Each structure stands twice: as structure tokens, then as C-alpha cells.
Amino acid sequence: MAKHHVSTTINGDAVEFLCETRQTLLDVLRDELGMTGTKEGCGTGDCGACSVTVDGRLVCSCLMLGVEAQGKAIATIEGMAQGNHLHVLQRKFLEHAALQCGICTPGFLIAARALLERNPDPTEEEVRFWLAGNLCRCTGYQKIIEAVLDAAREMRRA
Predict the structure, then answer these.
(1) Rounded Cα gap, residues 129 and 139, in angstroms
(2) Looking at residue 139, what is its pLDDT?
(3) Which CATH code for domain 88-157?
(4) Quick one: 63 exposed, middle or buried, by C-beta within 10 A (0-12, 13-18, 19+)?
(5) Domains of the chain: which residue ranges?
(6) For the segment 65-107, what is each residue's pLDDT rounded down to a tens digit?
(7) Strand partners, 59
(8) CA–CA separation, 99 vs 24, rounded Å?
(9) Regarding the domain with residue range 3-77, which homologous superfamily does it belong to in the CATH classification?
């Protein structure tokens, strides 16, 4: 099968890759680019584990084709921390013990960051609504919600 050349930006860096027409962005990230932080939970867009942002829009990378990344700006979990300095959301997830097995965590973090970029002062209801597309089988959701709200408070103070 023919491969397509794609030029894009991932986490602020120019990236080029070859992919088959049918390869999902998730498969390209993990298999072609070695960016394994984005997880596959369901492969059908129902769990949110593979969430990334594309041109600032939250998407399930298992539902987007790699060839559709041409010319887009993609942000993944690998771009959240700055070197050894964790993003405030990552710190708050640790402080609130808002993770267990870790499969869903990258998707929750990407979704929460997308929310806080749009709404720096969300209510608990708004956080719950925004994160409704992300499923967790281990933690329940309360600690995740508390971590996002705590991160929002800290980000507003900064």
C-alpha cells in the first residue's frame, strides 16, 4: 500500500512522517513516531484515552487519520511537561492521587488542559461535563475533578 508524506507540527516541533491512508493518528503517533504517551483504550472514540488537540480542538486520535494531520498543529501528552517541570495539571493529578493504572490519565490531562485554556474558572459541573468523554475504570472521578479544580485555582493565581 502506498504511503503518504505528511508535514505537521507536534508539540511545537516540525515533524514529517510517512503513513498509509488507513492509519489513524493514534497509530502514527505510537507506531511511526514512538510517542507512546497517547493510549488506545477502545479504538472507537468512546473512552478518551487517545485524546490530543489538533489546531486547539480536542479530538480522539483513534478517529482521525494520520493523513489528516497535514499542516495541523497537534499537542500530545509528551508536550505537557517542560523538561523536568511538570504542568500544574500533572502535579495536581499526583497530589490528589487522581490516577491508578494510567491508561486514561493522558487523555484526562489533555482534555483538562483544553478546558482550562478555554475556561480558566470552571465550575465542578463544567469540569464534569467537559471530561464526560473520558472514561476511567480504576479511580472513580472525584479525585480527577478535584485535581482539575485545584489546578485551575493555582493557574489563576499565577
Answers:
(1) 18
(2) 81
(3) 1.10.150.120
(4) middle
(5) 3-77, 88-157
(6) 999 999 999 999 999 999 999 999 999 999 999 999 999 999 9
(7) 52
(8) 26
(9) Beta-grasp domain (3.10.20.30)
